[in-house]
Amino acid sequence: MTGGGRTALVTGASSGIGAAVAAALAARGYRVLGTSRDPGAVADPLPGVEYLALDLTDTASVEACAAAAGEVDVLVNNAGESQNGPLEELPMEALERLFRLNVLGPVRLTQLVLPGMRARGHGRVVMVGSMLASFPLAYRSSYVASKAAIKGFAHSLRREVSPYGVGVATVEPGSVNTGISERRTQYVADDSPFLAEYRTMLTALNANEARGISAQAVARTVLRAVEAPRPKPLYAVGSNAPLVFALRRLLPRSSVERIVARRHGLR
């Protein structure tokens, strides 16, 4: 599936991975609709990209965005929030917001564009997840769970829509250098019993992301998923993905969990 004037809708296209994906699709000849909470405030609008307003935590906004987009051939669910904190200290309102943003909003948007894809006999849906969904990390439980959920929706959806020419895939990036460490929401008390270990994890996490792959590398992987005749269920990129997924198949789960923990300074 290539550009040829087809329409792609990319959420969270004002910066980072979303902006890189939108630029890559525009270069391939797609008509690209990129979303932002405030299109008028996009600092560096991309040439060839039209911006639509979208707040994934607001169902009415999701439905208005889908209506404004019209027929969509490619949906890249990229927008989301990165969240940290010991589970017992995560406020429920923050956890609920995260799931509305990272899971329920993208799922609703997918529901709204699928009937048109199915009727036209072609389409692609790509969920931008995280390798943490496959390799969970302490103090990131809410984020890990949201990315595992979106992957679960994608895996189950594949079989439902593949007979109608619609391909569904999840792209799991590892550490990506997009400046997300500066925008991550964090919930840990100053007197938390977990504070020292949390700070150790966070220092390693930020350092890994500073050394991570570029947003453009992730965008190239998303493009592969979009344009593959038969997209794979999962594409992983960065953080030595081929090696670590091979180890995940060969080693006991407990051993893999220890490796992930030690990479982040945890025992």
Kindly describe this structure.
- It holds the Pfam family adh_short.
- The chain is of the alpha/beta class and 267 residues long.
- It has one domain: Rossmann fold, CATH 3.40.50.
- The chain has eight helices and nine strands.
- It has helices spanning 16-27, 59-69, 92-120, 141-161, 195-210, 215-227, 241-250, 253-263, and strands at residues 7-10, 31-36, 49-53, 74-77, 83-84, 123-128, 166-173, 185-186, 234-237.
- It has a seven-stranded parallel beta sheet, sandwiched between helices. The chain has a two-stranded parallel ribbon with strand order 5-8.
- It is globular, with a radius of gyration of 18 Å.
- The model has no long low-confidence stretch (mean pLDDT 95).
Brief account:
By secondary structure, the chain is α/β, with parallel strands linked by helices.
Query: What is the N-to-C succession of helices and strands?
Result: EHEEHEEHEHEEHHEHH
Tell the overall outline. globular
Largest sheet: 7 strands, parallel
Question: How big a fraction of the residues is strand?
Answer: 15-25%
By CATH reckoning, the class would read Alpha Beta
Keywords:
single chain, 267 residues, alpha/beta, two-stranded parallel sheet, 9 strands, 15% strand, globular, oxidoreductase activity, NAD(P)-bd_dom_sf
SSE inventory with pairings:
Blueprint: E1 7-10, H1 16-27, E2 31-36, E3 49-53, H2 59-69, E4 74-77, E5 83-84, H3 92-120, E6 123-128, H4 141-161, E7 166-173, E8 185-186, H5 195-210, H6 215-227, E9 234-237, H7 241-250, H8 253-263
Parallel strand pairs: 1-2, 1-4, 2-3, 4-6, 5-8, 6-7, 7-9
Helix pairs in contact: 1-6, 2-3, 3-4
